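Practice problem: predict the structure.
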Amino acid sequence: MDRNIEATREVIRRLPKAGREELLRLWQENFGRPASPGLRRSLILPILAYRIQERAYGGLDPESERRLRETVVDPKPQ
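Answer:
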């Protein structure tokens, strides 16, 4: 198995047991900025897991991103 895949899997396996300081460090590494101070652990874990996988394996293809953007409802009233 590819080392990168196994290393990514191991990081993600460890996330639920990681302390807040470790999660915040990983957030900074993966997003290039600190997490919002009020961000709950229950949100940090899946967002961080997705980002780690995205960086390791690649994100959404451009067509999927475009389609998602088209489905977003503009919150501003017309």
